Automatic annotation (TrEMBL):
Organism expressing this protein natively: Hymenobacter polaris
GO molecular function: carbohydrate binding; hydrolase activity, hydrolyzing O-glycosyl compounds
Site (Important for catalytic activity, responsible for pKa modulation of the active site Glu and correct orientation of both the proton donor and substrate): D160
PANTHER family cross-referenced by the UniProt entry: ENDO-1,4-BETA-XYLANASE (PTHR43772), PUTATIVE (AFU_ORTHOLOGUE AFUA_2G04480)-RELATED (PTHR43772:SF2)
Name of the molecule in the record: Family 43 glycosylhydrolase
């Protein structure tokens, strides 16, 4: 009994120890995360990402992907995320070369009360061909403990496994190796039930990888990163059946404007809303093999087409007014007088700040839940060398003023508390604006 409850006790402990993450993008700011596979199990969202670490001499290949293990994260509201810790590591999978640091993009699926975690890696024994193989680890809970199978799946050579269970109960495994491949899985979820097929009718020029299959209203969506130009963008094709033939339909997300070479995603419905989980190198702008997972809403057109997703920093969900509101994960930023910067470029995990240069600078953060009970004060973490006045409003340029805060000059960060001049119950956008000509930096805002 205690063993069954252990994952929940551990997740509670993780929460107490401060492993909870935030709602904004990137979703996880305590480590690098990539290749998010999101699943809804028992009303909770679980994300199984890759875990990028920095290679050092003797540990992985410097300048390349370096991944030794997998964590799982979960959330009941897409806002508060819990890190449940390591679930599979390269040192404890019998078939994986333990110093290969190649635990690339995984997936996880539930069947008959078990959780099947699929992951690619480099095998110890390469007599069966060079390159990556795909293995499975099985657990009784989404958070593990996961027990790896002794051998990789026979007949699968490649990376980026993705599993789909059709309405008739047939399971399929998709993976990539330059092109995309698929095969039926046996009911035991551990072996292929059909010979692999190459998924044709897709673009033949440019790498394709990271397949993610889902079904909606009888349409099977094969979604995948593809290098159509120089870097990956997310595309999709549809079919009336899981193995095709497919019709290429379009682009889900354009290439990253800042040049992150990979993108890798999953698409999940949670409480009647569809979501796109994907990644970007937010916490490592100079090195795109250290990535961070993101989350934005996804919408369908009436004919089933996927509306293109424009990446946001704000992400999804509401932020409670009593939490620290990281306005640098903004919804809108003034075109002049406002920029975002790391708090400490030497340690990006500390997060970002909003720099308001003068009275033209403002930042808007949508979706703050103020609640019903009147809040009385606001605290800002701010820094200004010359002294400045900061105004807080709700609902855009003409919204009611909540507070006008005078920030004394100083070289250090200060937490300044001020009374609220008004209170708006309910959910509102929050605007933070400079009212003086002197520069002021804002780390966060919190109401009480
Ligand atoms: O994370 C390593 C590899 O980069 C993944 O397997 C690919 O999909 C790409 O995201």
């Amino acid at each position: 009994m205690l063993l069954r409850k252990l994952p929940y006790l551990l997740s509670g402990l993780a929460l107490l120890l401060g492993a909870a993450a935030k709602a904004q993008n990137p979703l996880i700011t305590t480590q690098f995360t990539a290749d998010p596979s999101a699943r809804v199990f028992n009303g909770r969202v679980y994300v199984y990402p890759s875990h990028d670490i920095l290679a050092t001499p003797g540990r992985g290949r410097v300048g390349w992907f370096c991944m030794a293990d997998y964590h799982v994260f979960s959330s009941a509201n897409l806002t508060d995320w819990t890190d449940h810790g390591v679930i599979v590591t390269q040192n404890q999978v019998p078939w994986v070369k333990p110093d290969s640091y190649s635990m690339w993009a995984p997936d996880c699926i539930a069947r008959n009360g078990k959780y099947y975690f699929y992951f690619p890696s480099t095998p110890r024994d390469t007599t069966d061909g060079k390159g990556f193989r795909v293995g499975v680890a099985v657990a009784d809970q989404p958070t593990g403990p996961f027990v790896p199978q002794p051998l990789p799946i026979r007949g699968v050579h490649g990376i980026d496994p993705n599993v789909f269970i059709d309405r008739d109960g047939q399971a399929y495994l998709y993976w990539s190796q330059g092109h995309l491949y698929a095969a039926k899985l046996q009911p035991n979820m551990l072996e292929l039930a059909s010979a692999p097929v190459t998924l044709g009718e897709l673009p033949t020029k440019g790498l394709k990888e990271g397949p993610y299959m889902f079904e909606r209203k009888g349409i099977y969506y094969l979604t995948y990163p593809h290098v159509a130009n120089k870097t990956e963008r997310l595309e999709y094709a549809t079919s009336p059946s899981p193995l095709g033939p497919f019709t290429v339909r379009g682009v889900i997300m354009d290439e990253s404007p800042t040049g992150c070479w990979t993108n890798h995603h999953s698409i999940t419905q949670f409480r009647n809303q569809w979501y796109l989980f994907y990644h970007h190198n937010d916490l490592s702008p100079q090195f795109d093999k250290s990535r961070s997972i993101r989350l934005d809403s996804l919408f369908f057109e009436p004919d089933g087409a996927i509306r293109k997703v424009v990446p946001t920093l704000r992400g999804v969900g509401l932020t409670a007014a009593r939490q620290k509101i990281q306005v640098d994960r903004y919804s809108r930023l003034s075109s002049r007088g406002a920029t975002i910067a790391f708090l400490d470029p030497a340690n990006p995990f500390l997060g970002w700040q909003t720099l308001l240069a003068d009275s033209q600078g403002w930042v808007q953060y949508n979706g703050v839940a103020f609640g019903k009970q009147a809040l009385k004060a606001v605290t800002l973490r701010v820094r200004t060398a010359a002294g400045a006045t900061v105004q807080l409003r709700t609902d855009g340029a003409t919204g009611p003023v909540l507070a006008q805060v005078a920030v004394p000059k100083g070289s250090e960060w200060q937490e300044i508390k001020a009374p609220l001049a008004s209170f708006q119950p309910g959910t509102h956008a929050l605007v933070v604006a400079a009212k003086t000509s002197a520069p002021v930096a804002v780390d966060w805002v919190r109401f009480e």
